[in-house]
Amino acid sequence: MEHGFWHARWAEGRIGFHEGTANALLKRHLGALQLGSGQRVFLPLCGKTRDIGWLLEQRFRVAGAELSRTAVEQLFDELGQTPEITQAGPLERFAASGAEIYVGDIFDLEPATLGPVDAVFDRAALVALPEEMRQRYAAHLEALTRGAPQLLITFEYDQSAMSGPPFNVSAEEVQRLYGDSMSPRLLERVEVPGGLKGQCPAQEVAWVLGG
Ligand SMILES: C[S@@+](CC[C@H](N)C(=O)[O-])C[C@H]1O[C@@H](n2cnc3c(N)ncnc32)[C@H](O)[C@@H]1O
């Protein structure tokens, strides 16, 4: 999607993707990443997800990348934190007690700027991107995080019944994107209650990659 699409969504508050509480599959399957207290989890395309607050409560450190400054300002407001804001190359870095969010295009974020991460949590990031961007995104994410293990959440539904985002990302595509290097393993498949956007039967699928 074009950057303008996402900036408009945040400006107009059209953020139906934002969940009111931490993602249930994250809570159930974080253990698959075998992390220890204080380790650093990276959330690509993080929005203002409540997953960040939950991970901080579990005593992890969190890094994120998000295009929208509005989203990141709201995130820190909702965390009750005043971030320190610095320039990090072409991106801005918002940081406060255990959370560092890079504001800008994730494709401009470099491994040396992000620093080491111990795991990745991708919810509504891969599936937010159109098919022609997903190969580039997966390769960039793997390089950016130096192949860190990943908990990935996808949606599966009939793409002809609804246009994305979120887009349908099939099991075959997960294998195509990450199969060679990360050995994706399916953890759980659950029905989306009432269907995606209340109109289309869909399943939410949890994968662990490289774990
Ligand atoms: C569907 S939302 C998901 C947000 C979050 N992961 C969640 O679960 O609520 C996708 C987010 O990706 C951001 N985004 C889109 N393209 C991006 C890019 N190239 N770099 C960084 N963020 C991007 C959008 O602004 C939007 O907040």
UniProtKB/TrEMBL annotation:
The keyword NADP does not apply. Its EC number is 2.1.1.67. S-adenosyl-L-methionine binds at residues 10, 45, 66, 123. One of its GO terms (molecular function) is thiopurine S-methyltransferase activity. It catalyses: S-adenosyl-L-methionine + a thiopurine = S-adenosyl-L-homocysteine + a thiopurine S-methylether. It is an enzyme of class 2 (transferase). Keywords: Cytoplasm, Methyltransferase, S-adenosyl-L-methionine, Transferase. Transmembrane segments: none annotated. SUPFAM superfamilies: S-adenosyl-L-methionine-dependent methyltransferases. GO terms for biological process: methylation; response to metal ion. It is found in: Cytoplasm. The keyword Phosphoprotein does not apply. PROSITE patterns: SAM_MT_TPMT. GO terms for cellular component: cytoplasm. NCBIfam families: PRK13255.1 (NF009732), TMPT_Se_Te (TIGR03840). Belongs to the class I-like SAM-binding methyltransferase superfamily. TPMT family. This is Thiopurine S-methyltransferase. It comes from Thalassococcus profundi.
